[in-house]
Amino acid sequence: MSLVWSLLGEIDGWLTGNAPETAATLRPPAAVDPVDQLRAGTGIEVHPDLVALLLWHDGAEATDVAAFQLAPGFDFLGAAEMIEVREREVLSRQLAARVAAGG
Questions:
Q1: Of 15, 22, 62, 83, which has the fewest Cβ atoms less than 10 A away?
Q2: Which pLDDT does position 98 carry in this prediction?
Q3: DSSP assignment string, 48-81
Q4: pLDDT band, residue 28 (cuts 50/70/90)
């Protein structure tokens, strides 16, 4: 077992015992291979630790309770949400380039 998987297991145990409402916001593991999904959806190489994270839980649901965040202010997005964010970023850059070019 890798160090990452060991740490994710510890996080699961801590959340279950100390913050069950937050633990309940975590989604099940990614149902499809997140490497293929993210690579196809974004064209970006996927770090193995990100793959492990998505195979642990495919993001967290935003709820009225304290949803699990990777760090304060950094929501835990699932693979599909990461692709959506990347697509919006690309479209925004394309629009900005058109505006800058006078189009």
A1: 62
A2: 87
A3: HHHHHHHHH-S-B---SS---EEETTEE---HHH
A4: very high
Q: What is the phi/psi pair of residue 80, to 5°?
A: -65, -40
Distance CA 43, CA 75 (A): 22
Range of the domain at 75: 3-100
9, 29, 59, 82: CA torsion to nearest 10: 130
Q: What is the dihedral of CA 31, 21, 50, 73, to 10 degrees?
A: 130
8 Å CB contact between 68 and 26: yes
The residue behind tokens 């279950």 is 16
Which pLDDT score, from 0 to 100, does residue 87 have? 86
Tens of pLDDT, residue by residue over 30-51, are 887 877 888 888 888 888 898 8
Distance CA(24)–CA(19), nearest Å, equals 9
